[in-house]
Design brief:
Radius of gyration: 14 Å
Helix content: 40-55%
Shape: globular
Strand content: 5-15%
Distance between the termini: 24 Å
Number of strands: 6
Length: 129
């Protein structure tokens, strides 16, 4: 699978739309869809690829990635790729490796740029650069 950043954004945004609706386990706030989640939560910390952090780029069974956001109540929520189809996780991990090494950015910096674009798209904003 030959991926570029735009294709990765589309894949991830579609995937991250799938766990909705969902509720905050602490306060019960209901998020009907990704758009509401993005509008009513605040990104927190860095996005993380657990495989990249371990330097395990060639794994046959990737752990995946996570992006964190705080609910209005302060509870930290996560969107993860742990339920994503394995072949897609592997393709995204290979893309992350190529992109981070080719750009001189850390995997978290690359993932944070993706998160910013996905959040901008979900809000209906112009794409973030």
């Amino acid at each position: 699978m030959d991926l570029n950043e735009d294709a990765v954004v589309v894949i991830l945004q579609r995937y991250f739309e799938s766990p909705f609706p969902r509720d905050c386990p602490t306060c019960g706030r209901h998020y009907a869809n990704l758009r509401q989640y993005v509008r009513e939560t605040a990104p927190v910390g860095y996005s993380v690829s657990y495989d990249a952090n371990r330097g395990d780029w060639d794994t046959a069974n990737p752990i995946g990635s996570a992006a964190f956001a705080n609910c209005a109540c302060g509870n930290t929520l996560a969107l993860t790729t742990k339920e994503m189809e394995m072949s897609q996780r592997l393709a995204l991990l290979a893309w992350l490796k190529r992109t981070s090494e080719g750009s001189g950015r850390t995997p978290s910096e690359v993932l944070d740029q993706l998160r910013a674009r996905i959040r901008a798209n979900a809000r209906g904003d112009a794409p973030a650069d």
